[in-house]
């Protein structure tokens, strides 16, 4: 591993090219010093100096102790301290992004462990969620997702088997669910509705995610549609609260009197519709 002083300028130039080309998007978090050191086969001291060069150039800013690409850097957020060298992931308003692609953009390696993969009849409630007849076959897929080997989320998915016959026979420890749906069945995710809630981890979830029971997790329930407005997936994803951040732009309603607000919807602010959402 090299520590030549001239190397930091080469590393800085490579990172500048990634930023300017959009590989590392504006407003996204820079990969950690450890990850960059491994990628470039240099010391962390070299990486640190390269990142300082980018800060001086105005390409990178530091927020809450983390480095972000300038453009839409988020405001500081108080988080529980993460474990040493633990990586976190952040997604923002860039549309539907796969877990593996989002991880790669942050300089992390994603992996999956399949906990459940079976084809079975749908219940009445499940059929209602998927827009199919009660008893119609569905594929139930549950995966534990990792970043650099660290458990980050559990993903519970239901897919109408009628749209993707034989889907349960694929190995989703390595295959992308949405990639398989697109490539093998011509099903493309074009829109998703999601609800985000903070919860305490149940004992079962806590065991899988390596948390004490009751620790904070972020639960996202999503329904995804194809171009024909068919439900191609219903999904419940549970993330460790210290390993994941969801970022969205907020817009004011200039020139309009605020509506009567509910507790869940403050007046004068609204989430821009096209925020990013992670898909498997």
Automatic annotation (TrEMBL):
PROSITE patterns: HTH_GNTR
Domain HTH gntR-type positions: 5-77
Transmembrane helix in keyword set: no
CDD domains recorded: WHTH_GntR
Any Pfam family the entry gives: UTRA
Alphabetical list of SMART domains matching this protein: HTH_GNTR, UTRA
SUPFAM superfamilies: Chorismate lyase-like, Winged helix' DNA-binding domain
Entries under InterPro entries matching the protein: Bact_HTH_transcr_reg, Chorismate_lyase_/UTRA_dom_sf, Tscrpt_reg_HTH_GntR, UTRA, WH-like_DNA-bd_sf, WH_DNA-bd_sf
Keywords recorded for this protein, A-Z: DNA-binding, Transcription, Transcription regulation
Tagged with keyword Transcription: yes
Domain of life of the native organism: Bacteria
Protein name, entry field: GntR family transcriptional regulator
Source species of the chain: Actinacidiphila epipremni
UniProt lineage: Bacteria, Bacillati, Actinomycetota, Actinomycetes, Kitasatosporales
């Amino acid at each position: 591993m090299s520590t030549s002083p001239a190397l930091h300028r080469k590393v800085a130039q490579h990172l500048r090219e990634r930023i300017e080309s959009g590989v590392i998007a504006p407003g996204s978090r820079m990969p950690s010093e450890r990850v960059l050191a491994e990628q470039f086969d240099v010391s962390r001291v070299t990486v640190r100096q390269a990142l300082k060069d980018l800060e001086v150039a105005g390409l990178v800013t530091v927020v809450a102790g983390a480095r972000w690409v300038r453009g839409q850097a988020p405001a500081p957020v108080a988080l529980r301290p993460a474990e040493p060298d633990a990586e976190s992931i952040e997604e923002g308003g860039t549309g539907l992004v796969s877990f593996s692609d989002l991880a790669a953009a942050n300089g992390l390696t994603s992996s999956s462990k399949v906990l459940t993969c079976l084809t079975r009849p749908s219940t009445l409630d499940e059929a209602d969620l998927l827009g199919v007849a009660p008893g119609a076959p569905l594929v139930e897929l549950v995966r534990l997702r990792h970043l650099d080997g660290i458990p980050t989320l559990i993903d519970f998915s239901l897919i109408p088997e009628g749209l993707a016959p034989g889907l349960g026979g694929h190995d989703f420890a390595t295959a992308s669910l949405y990639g398989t749906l697109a490539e093998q069945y011509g099903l493309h995710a074009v829109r998703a509705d999601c609800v985000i809630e903070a919860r305490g981890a149940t004992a079962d979830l806590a065991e899988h995610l390596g948390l004490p029971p009751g620790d904070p997790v972020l639960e996202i329930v999503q329904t995804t549609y194809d171009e024909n407005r068919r439900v191609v997936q219903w999904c419940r994803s549970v993330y460790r609260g210290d390993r994941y951040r969801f970022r969205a732009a907020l817009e004011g309603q200039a020139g309009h009197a605020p509506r009567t607000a509910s507790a869940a919807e403050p007046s004068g602010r609204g989430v821009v519709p096209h925020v990013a959402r992670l898909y498997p």
